[in-house]
Write a structure and sequence with these properties.
The complex is a heterodimer of chains A (about 675) and B (about 650). By secondary structure, chain A is α+β, with helices and mostly antiparallel strands. Among the domains of chain A are: about 115-280, Butyryl-CoA Dehydrogenase, subunit A, domain 2 (Beta Barrel), CATH 2.40.110.10; about 475-615, Butyryl-CoA Dehydrogenase, subunit A, domain 3 (Up-down Bundle). Chain A contains 26 helices and 11 strands. In chain A, strands 1, 2, 3, 5, 6 and 9 form a 6-stranded mixed β-sheet that branches. A 3-stranded antiparallel β-sheet of chain A has the order 4-8-7, with no helix packed on it. In chain A, strands 10-11 form a two-stranded antiparallel sheet. In chain A, strand 5 (about 195-205) and strand 6 form a beta hairpin. Chain A starts with 15 loop residues before the first helix and ends with a helix. In chain A, about 50% of the residues are buried. Chain B is globular, with a radius of gyration of 27 Å. In chain B, helix 10 packs across helix 13. Chain B starts with a helix and ends with a helix. Helices cover about 55% and strands about 10% of the residues of chain B. Classes of the chains: A alpha+beta (about 675), B alpha+beta (about 650). The interface between A and B is large, with 139 and 141 residues. Chain B: Keywords: FAD, Fatty acid metabolism, Flavoprotein, Lipid metabolism, Oxidoreductase, Peroxisome, Phosphoprotein. Chain B: One of its GO terms (biological process) is fatty acid derivative biosynthetic process. Chain B: Belongs to the acyl-CoA oxidase family.
């Protein structure tokens, strides 16, 4: 009947059900945490940052779930300002190791996130002179910038953007205009209320000729009183599913004149006489885009899945419901196989994605060095790889957070669980920095090219090299234990990816039979997306296997991480049986073995589930969840937090104003 | 009207109105529905500001204002038919919950079914007249699914002839009931009854919680709102804690069980009507799954025909995004699903009415089966719709994420139906229990009837994959009836696999419960396969009832798409059981894509047929006229952050910072 500790409301000792889970861990949580952080030194730095942040009430997110959009925005601005001061005070720099931990600790609830993109774009596209002029101002926050690219009518298709910048030789100025409603800049963060300046993308016109998209620096608000500049209509785009703390904005420009110098002109410029000059390759631009795409995965996206897993797993050992055996007390819900099936594959996924960081970084660093030396050979692969990896990670993390939410039953639906806010933030990541379907198709385009290279005997980029290896025929597994061998399942994934990519030869078939290239492409896109997913899935499985290999000096940890790797791989097969059975690589009997091994693994990992989420080492403040705290005092906390709800503090007028008089009139009429 | 939408509508191959009639259950019902909706739409009392810009407290106030008005107006208009009340309410609250939901939907009906005549005299008319507003307090913080575990106690004190109600632990606090936090002054409370030192299990008590007149909580009662949620902003889901709170003996609902003044407990006669109520509520949730998904599809499909992006052919104007195969692949299977679920909801409701007719004549034989099987359908449809709504939202890209799209609201309002009225996994396992029972019956030589009669074909035989594969393949992928057979085989196979694995676990271990738990993944799969079969079957059956040839043609395509898309997503099941060959699965993939192209010209007309008024859709992206961009701008101007040109945060934080750095 209720857990005894909950009766003493003041005490904060750990819930015994949760404590029991920690007693039986098969490995050292602290060691795993260090591995996840990339070394014990990093763990120390992170914890030091967390201690600083949590000791400062100015950073508190305590009442966040009760705040209005206005209050959320103001609080985010407040925290960001505090953070600048604190960083200054602590001597933390913008490129130091601490900043990402600040971000992690505050769960991204900060303003001025696009200010950084504003600076990055000037650094990438501006001349040294432009950099010298704008960057110091931005560093000191004397100006706050945003990056205005997306319009109401155009997101994915950049060439379709409709904002215009017309060069006037007589005045040596560009005139910027929003020619129609759909050309309004729409969505940029920090644009609505914060930014004073914007990097605006517009179609450049000189003497009536369009030269395509270029970037311009534009002042949008007064530096004296913050009022919008003349000819500028700017505001917030209204409430969203989340990100209420961000003033995503709209921007309409009416004959705004800016000097010729305000076009970012490292790669192209307009001379005083109106001559358009292009110089150098702006391919390095792609690199900036790739950096942002990769950056969000490990600073925003994946940590949110880790948090959702932490909350749902801890709650699932505190929550008891129904009985497994009539004579026993009610069971922890994590002891139900169906609950394990919901949560434990997600836990494995969280680890799988976390470990992708090293892989992508290695690729990135290699590519970056080459590109700096004006060698762009690796760019297509880097681009394709990060596009697909971004898409698969955001898709799985979003779906995963929602599973966690629903796995917590009714209480997961409470905002106080923290899960609705994690889910709705993740949901946005499937769209921003490249819509996922579009990204998968970019990866697919690369794979189709690789396949053509295989056929014509040309070299294949490393990430797709497997496409040229010989078909291994049939899966070699004979018992369910065989499916715990990485070679066996890696090969199954490789086979599936190869077959899936090869099935896109239908594209060529369609073209050869007379279809136009674009029509053939469109008719194959469903298949192409599937090929890209199979490819990315294989890469993640392969990297997980490699990561397990590298843990050979940590026997206990290697063992549990190997279990997670097996689970991730087998769950993927179990959830996509059609792909693996089709064409007969895996037999029906083998599929039954997969299922059996997969279900066995659930029971094994179940025992370490809590230590595995503890290893993520999120502070309670950072989780901000009534269900997920380290001490497991779920119910007490729910009750305490609910009492703080404004609906309980403020006197609602609803009764006096509406109910009472209407009910009385109802009484007299009825 | 937007040119693209006009063109889409002009080129439809069928009359959308005829399809609307089918969905409504006849032209006359469509007429009456529209008449009732017009009463609300033309009534200035029901107009209000866009709810997206209101705080939670404001939304609650607005909802309660409308709820109270609604009750009065319904009675003034003399609208008493349940369907008509439902149409009216849906239009007033635009598909959102309202604080009086539990008063009207649970408190009043429970009084009617479980109160004695004396209790009805005391409570019913005041409740009908809203002097008493009640809620139904069952769920506690620590217990939802497992009702027997509820901890609230009601101890009978014969000395005063009162019950003493207590919430002995934090976990026993009543938590979640709608309307409990701020609205209700009474609650029907479920508590463990203790009398003469013995626990008699759960019983229902009428408990006053707030003072009539002042509306202040009564001494011994702690009551409040449980705080912000994912959605349900307008609902004051509440908590209730009772400390030695006394109520008279006469406040226990005593139509069935009784307590004599001396504390003697009189056992209830069994109450089979509750099965009927649950079937009815589940049919409403299935209907709601269909409607919520239909709304999401309407928004996403209209937006996708107005939105132009990128290029298919270099040099051509940007195409409507609905012309991209990937977009069709996201949306059209969901459109087909929305139609399928409409027919399932209608079937469940009809069956309920037929059987409750039987109940009055005393024939309850079908009720346990229906109860068991509709549990799974509730879970199956709400899970699918839940995912589908999000898919629609994401198909609208960034703009789908704005609340102006209406999609976030549809989702957050719908998603709790995966949990309430029976958590979905638990529901699936209830259906599985019935399937296993039926399988066991068949194995022992008895025949079963109804939706599970396909199990008779197993008749003790075991379908071996090889055996099925060895049979000549008879599935015709263009014939819905043949696809029903394919789904039937898949369901039988999964039921059989689950039953065998359960037996194997039983042979290995002693406890029934443990074996059940270790087979539950298989059992849920069996239930899902069963439900999927039922849905395909009901959709197919519906086709034969469509007389208009043009409507029939388009519905036939949707039905095929529903069935074939399901096969393509679960191809492994059909391959492993040998129901389909490799070559057939490849054909299915191809046929799905052909169907997308076939449905494309009718997509807008198909969502128009759902006939949602703009007011109800509450979506800038889904507007009937398609004038999206200008209205997004108008909408955004009303954002709370735009109340002033320069936000307060500038003066409070930004300006001082710039001074310091």
């Amino acid at each position: 009947k209720g857990s005894p500790v909950q009766k003493s409301s003041g005490s904060r000792d750990v819930n015994p059900d949760l404590e029991a889970e920690r007693q039986t861990a098969s490995f050292s949580v602290e060691s795993l945490t260090a591995i996840l952080d990339g070394g014990a030194d990093n763990t120390r730095t992170r914890r030091a940052v967390e201690a600083v942040i949590h000791s400062e009430p100015g950073f508190s997110r305590e009442n966040q779930y009760f705040q209005s959009q206005n209050e959320r925005y103001e609080a985010a601005v407040r925290r960001s300002v505090y953070l600048k001061e604190k960083m200054h005070q602590m001597g933390w720099t913008e490129d130091g190791p601490e900043i990402k931990y600040c971000y992690r600790t505050l769960g991204g609830d900060l303003a001025f996130n696009v200010h950084r993109v504003f600076k990055d774009s000037i650094l990438a596209l501006g001349t040294d002179e432009q950099i010298a002029k704008w960057i110091p101002l931005a560093d000191k926050y004397h100006i706050i910038g945003t990056y205005a690219q997306t319009e109401l009518g155009h997101g994915t298709f950049l060439r379709g953007l409709e904002t215009t910048a017309i060069f006037d030789i007589s005045t040596q100025e560009f005139t910027l205009n929003t020619p129609k409603i759909s050309a309004m800049k729409w969505w940029p963060g920090d644009l609505g209320k914060s930014a004073t300046h914007a990097v605006v993308f517009a179609q450049l016109y000189i003497k009536g000729k369009c030269y395509g998209l270029h970037a311009f620096i534009l002042q949008i608000r007064s530096l004296r009183d913050h009022s919008p500049a003349p000819g500028v209509i700017v505001g917030d785009i209204g409430p969203k599913m989340n990100f209420e703390h961000i003033d995503n904005g709209y921007l309409m420009l009416q004959n705004i004149n800016i000097p010729r110098e305000n076009m970012l002109r490292r790669f192209s410029q307009v001379l005083p006489d109106g001559t358009y000059v292009k110089r150098g390759s702006d391919k390095i631009n792609y690199l900036t885009m790739i950096v942002t795409r990769v950056h969000i995965l490990w600073t925003e996206v994946i940590p949110m899945l880790l948090k959702a897993c932490t909350i749902a797993t801890r709650y699932s050992v505190v929550r008891r419901q129904s009985k497994l055996n009539p004579s026993d007390p009610e069971a922890k819900i994590l002891d139900y196989q169906t609950q394990q099936q919901k949560l434990l594959p997600l836990l494995a996924t969280a680890y799988a994605f976390h470990f992708m960081n090293a892989y992508v970084n290695e690729f990135y660093n290699k590519g970056y060095t080459e590109i700096k030396q004006e060698n762009f050979d690796s760019l297509p692969e880097l681009h394709a790889l990060t596009a697909g990896i971004k898409a698969i990670i955001t898709e799985y993390c979003t779906a995963g957070a929602e599973v966690c939410l629903r796995a917590c039953g009714g209480h997961g639906y409470s905002a106080l669980s923290g899960l609705p806010s994690l889910y709705t933030k993740l949901a946005a990541s499937c769209t921003y920095e490249g819509e996922n379907t579009v990204l998968f198709l970019q990866t697919a385009r690369f794979l189709v090219k690789c396949l053509a290279a295989v056929h014509s005997g040309q070299p294949i980029p490393p990430s797709a090299a497997y496409l040229s290896s010989v078909d291994s025929g049939k899966c070699q597994a004979r018992t369910k234990m065989d499916f715990l061998k990485p070679d066996i399942y890696a090969e199954a994934y490789r086979h599936r990816a190869t077959r899936s990519v090869k099935s896109t030869t239908k594209l060529q078939a369609l073209v050869q039979s007379g279809a136009e290239q674009h029509e053939a492409w469109n008719q194959c896109t469903v298949q192409l997306v599937q090929a890209a997913k199979a490819h990315c899935h294989y890469i993640v499985v392969k990297n997980f296997i490699d990561t397990v290999e590298k843990l050979r000096n940590e026997a206990e940890i290697q063992k549990i991480v190997k279990h997670l790797c097996d689970l991730f791989a087998l769950h993927g097969i179990f959830s996509n049986t059609g792909d693996f059975l089709h064409a007969g690589y895996t037999s029906g009997d083998q599929m039954d073995m997969v299922t059996a091994s997969y279900l066995d693994l659930l029971a094994v990992i179940r025992n370490d589930a809590v230590p595995l989420v503890d290893a993520f080492d999120f502070t309670d403040e950072s989780l901000n969840s009534a269900l997920g705290s380290y001490d497991g005092h779920v119910y007490q906390r729910l009750y305490e937090w609910a009492q703080k709800s404004p609906t309980n503090k403020q006197v609602s007028q609803a009764y006096a104003r509406y109910l009472k008089p209407l009910f009385q009139s109802a009484v007299s009429k009825l | 009207m937007n040119r693209d939408l006009r063109r889409e509508r002009d080129s439809a191959s069928f009359n959308a109105e005829l399809l609307t009639h089918i969905l409504d259950g006849g032209a006359e019902r469509t007429r009456r529905r529209k008449e009732i909706e017009a009463l609300v739409l033309n009534d200035p009392d029901f107009q209000h500001e866009d709810l997206n810009f209101l705080s939670r407290s404001q939304r609650y106030e607005e909802a309660i204002r409308k709820s109270a008005l609604m009750v009065v107006k319904l009675r003034n208009y003399g609208i008493a038919d349940p369907d008509e009340i439902y149409w009216f309410k849906r239009c007033v609250h635009r598909g959102r919950p309202e604080p009086l939901d539990l008063h009207l939907g649970m408190f009043l009906p429970t009084l009617l079914t479980q109160a004695t005549l004396e209790q009805q005299d005391r409570f019913f008319m005041p409740a009908w007249n809203l002097e008493i507003i009640g809620t139904y307090a069952q769920t506690e913080m620590g217990h939802g699914t497992h009702l027997r575990g509820l901890e609230t106690t009601a101890t009978y004190d014969p000395a005063t002839q009162e019950f003493i109600l207590n919430s002995p632990t934090v976990t026993s606090i009543k938590w979640w009931p709608g309307g409990l936090g701020k609205t209700s002054n009474h609650a029907i409370v479920l508590a463990q009854l203790y009398t003469q030192g013995q626990c008699k299990g759960l019983h229902a008590f009428i408990v006053p919680i707030r003072q009539l007149g002042t509306h202040e909580p009564l001494p011994g009662i702690t009551v409040g709102d449980i705080g912000p949620k994912f959605g349900y902003d307008e609902m004051d889901n509440g908590y209730l804690k009772m400390d030695n709170f006394r109520i008279p003996r006469e406040n226990m609902l005593m139509k069935y069980a009784k307590i004599e003044p001396d504390g003697t407990y009189v056992k209830p006669v069994s109450d089979k009507l509750t099965y009927g109520t649950m079937v009815f509520i589940r049919s409403i949730i299935v209907g709601d799954s269909a409607r919520s998904l239909s709304r999401a599809c309407t928004i996403a499909i209209r937006y996708s025909s107005v939105r132009h992006q990128s290029e298919l052919k270099p040099g051509d104007p940007e195409p409507q995004i609905l012309d991209y195969q990937t977009q069709q692949y996201k949306l059209f299977p969901l459109l087909a699903t929305a139609y399928a679920f409409h027919f399932v909801g209608a079937y469940m409701k009809m069956t309920y009415h037929r059987i409750t007719g039987d109940i009055n004549e005393g024939d309850l034989s079908e009720l346990p089966e229906l109860h068991a099987l509709t549990a799974g359908l509730k879970a199956f449809t709400s899970w699918t719709a839940n995912a589908g709504i999000e898919e629609c939202r994401m198909a609208c890209g960034g703009h789908g994420y704005s609340r102006c799209s209406g999609l976030p609201d549809i989702y957050v309002t719908f998603t709790p139906s995966c949990t309430y009225e029976g958590e979905n996994t638990v529901m699936m396992l209830q259906t599985a229990r019935f399937l296993i029972k039926s399988y066991t019956q068949v194995s022992s030589g008895q025949l079963v009837s109804g939706m599970v009669s396909y199990l008779n074909d197993l008749s003790g035989q075991h379908i071996q994959p090889q055996q099925v594969a060895a049979r000549p393949t008879t599935v015709h992928i263009n014939d819905p009836a043949s696809l029903v057979e394919a789904y039937k085989l898949r369901a039988s196979r999964f039921v059989e696999v689950a039953a065998k694995n359960l037996q194997a676990e039983l042979n290995r271990r002693k406890s029934q419960e443990d074996a059940w738990n270790r087979t539950s993944v298989d059992l849920v799969r069996a239930s899902e396969a069963h439900c999927h079969y039922v849905v395909v079957k009901l959709f197919t059956t519906q086709l034969s009832e469509i007389n208009d040839a043009a409507v029939h043609a388009v519905m036939n395509n949707l039905c095929l798409l529903y069935a074939l898309y399901g096969i393509s997503k679960h191809a492994g099941d059909f391959l492993q059981a040998g129901i389909l060959t490799d070559a057939q699965v490849t054909q299915v993939y191809q046929r799905v894509k052909e169907l997308l192209a076939a449905i494309r010209p009718n997509a807008v007309a198909l969502v128009d047929a759902f006939d949602f008024h703009d007011n109800h859709l509450a979506s800038v992206l889904g507007r009937y006229d398609g004038n999206i961009y200008e209205n997004m701008f108008e909408w955004a101007k009303k954002s709370p952050l735009n109340k002033t040109e320069v936000h307060e945060a500038f003066h409070k934080h930004l300006k001082p910072m710039q001074a310091k750095l």
